[in-house]
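Hi support team,

I'm opening this ticket because the web form for multi-chain structure prediction keeps timing out on my end. I have pasted the exact lines I submitted so you can reproduce it. The total is 830 residues across two entries, so I didn't expect it to be a heavy job. Is there a limit I'm missing, or should I split the entries? Thanks in advance, R.K.
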Amino acid sequence: MSAQVRPSRPRQPERPVRQENLRTLNLELVFRHIVAAGGPISRTELATSTGLTRPTITRIAEELLAGQLITEGGPAHNGRAGRPRVGLTLSEKGPAGLGLDIRADGLAACIVDLTGTVRHLAFAPSAGRDAPDVLAGLAHMADAAIDAITAEDLTVVTATLAVPGPVHAGIVQSAPALGWRNVDAGALLRGATRHLDLPITVDNEANLAALGELYASDNTLSSFVYVSGGLGIGAGIVLDGQLMRGARGWSGELGHVTVHPEGEPCPCGSRGCLQTYASLPAILSDEPVPAGTTPDAAITGWAEAGRPATLAALDSAGTALGIALSDMLNILDIDTVLLGGSFSLLASWLTANARAEVQRRVLTATWAPITIRPALLGPDAAVIGAALTSIDQIRQHPTTWLALRPSHSRPTAPA
Amino acid sequence: MSAQVRPSRPRQPERPVRQENLRTLNLELVFRHIVAAGGPISRTELATSTGLTRPTITRIAEELLAGQLITEGGPAHNGRAGRPRVGLTLSEKGPAGLGLDIRADGLAACIVDLTGTVRHLAFAPSAGRDAPDVLAGLAHMADAAIDAITAEDLTVVTATLAVPGPVHAGIVQSAPALGWRNVDAGALLRGATRHLDLPITVDNEANLAALGELYASDNTLSSFVYVSGGLGIGAGIVLDGQLMRGARGWSGELGHVTVHPEGEPCPCGSRGCLQTYASLPAILSDEPVPAGTTPDAAITGWAEAGRPATLAALDSAGTALGIALSDMLNILDIDTVLLGGSFSLLASWLTANARAEVQRRVLTATWAPITIRPALLGPDAAVIGAALTSIDQIRQHPTTWLALRPSHSRPTAPA
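Hello R.K., no limit was hit. The queue was backed up. Here is the completed structure from your submission:
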């Protein structure tokens, strides 16, 4: 026999840690232990949990304090019974992350600090769907948010823009719900803001919303699917605490999963996609949205008033959602589904039918139950997730913020 | 604003390396570099690539040589032009891995050595589908394989059994194609073999086959879906070189993805599953398989003879496969599909229709092409993957073999 097959070779053979990186690695190790503590932690506890010496901890703590990454708190309750805690905690000043989102009911901007607290959350109606108009509107919101937060001694370090479609190397490949194709959203945004040197990351909104839900659950949720319903439908997949982006970052195109192979045509070119049954335009059918309201608000209002056409559309949307979700869960083996975006507002009309299909169609559902429920952060998951993704860069690599510090006191906007 | 959400905390805070583990870690590091080299590598090259000192490398090489994990080769060509190479390579004696598989055309057993070379591959017809009969048949094959290989100075360290269904904690939860439910396949196998102390791992056959293909591709394939067609249909998902098992190890239930929501009933309790269109029994419809042949051979023979009913069944199987695969690829974002198991033999009749559906239904296919082709290892992927998975345990953690060494020279079978 000679079929030679080679068991897994490490793709990048590991290397031992070298002295020159040790200082950075230890500082980041200590900082991540402070993040993981979720509350005040003493230098002694840090020495125990990291295995580093007390003098090393002391030196690193000084560096983190000077850099506004942590503060030294007085007595504070840790939320449980027992004696109050003192120690080192994440700073509420210093670096901040900006998130921006394009959704069915308008535009949104959010800023979070290092502790993960939302410090700014603003909404505005969108002036149409054309990319330059949408991004000019978001640039205006970003400028206003950065101005507002500077007064609180917070510096926005990086921005993350959520878009409803697959992104590659910063370019929105396709966003059928907005009619976008190959849009350099980061460049349009940067060209319209006053903060020309702000690093901007563009990412899929369902992925960012899934990260928002992961953060918000404080890691009690480790594997789930976040379904974002709106003008289109997308999904973010979290498996074992990690976002599963796929080979090129385009995973989770739930809206284009086939429900009926010979169904209605979809703008994507296929037929019978979930999007043709369960997106907001599909649920509205040809009914115009009354002036001054949003598609979600119109559907919710009609459903609450018992309008038969709306209720029937929601029924078939729920069934179609359940069929497509079953496919997704059979493939991924995940037992929790969070309905987000506009679906978080419509969940009470969608969930029963979706559950019935999932119960019937997911092979493992007969012995392992599946949970379908509204997202924790509701329709704000994507913008909060985008802001948290921005600040998470500093939480993972605090030394990049420390390296920026000389420029920290100068204004972020050109005079 | 006070919605506090906590960015990613490390779930298991890292710890620095301690002295007592250093010896093991360095030995395993060096061994993995020898695995990764894929051919002879000198002590000097190992010192450079690992960053360890030459005396440390020398000491570790002695230990690996004494443990039959590596050999020191004379001049040998590395397959490219230039001067012959000398150096350390993986041993063709010492530890071996056993794989066992239950497939549509019978039972299979395989043994591979550390180099990944198949040293034994055997097939036998299955006496029915009842679990005790099937596992007694496999136990007999395992005993024969271990006896045959002992003469070549190879010791089977661990066995991996491939089963067509989801597995949890060693129990086959459900294998609709065999009519199994909650079967402790490892215990039945162990009870029937003479090698009562052999560690046995039970795993899903599509997952193991996907690993087999990953190994066989020498990591040139990093993200792909392996589709296993047979009595049932399953899939193994490899993303960025890693098997994606899902939250509970039950991912890839492609056979139960819905093709038509109101299609034919499936043994799983749902309707219109891919399995009802494209499994071997579905393609055969009610046509009995002639005595002395297998379902795959019967279908292939009829298709080659141009039998209209068979060709029509293969056409609709290909279309259904394409619809279900499109759902999978929209969700996962993977651009390569390997048709394996019996589908590797039927690929020439299935691929055109499957490709047409994928081209039309996968959102990203219009700008990023998708490849569908037969698996490299054909129907043997699962049994070879199972054997490689067994030996890979030693490749990842060679110290477990070294710890076993005192027992290495005693016979593995009781006298």
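A quick check on our side: Residues 7-13, 407-415 of chain B have pLDDT under 50 and may be disordered. Let us know if the file doesn't open in your viewer.
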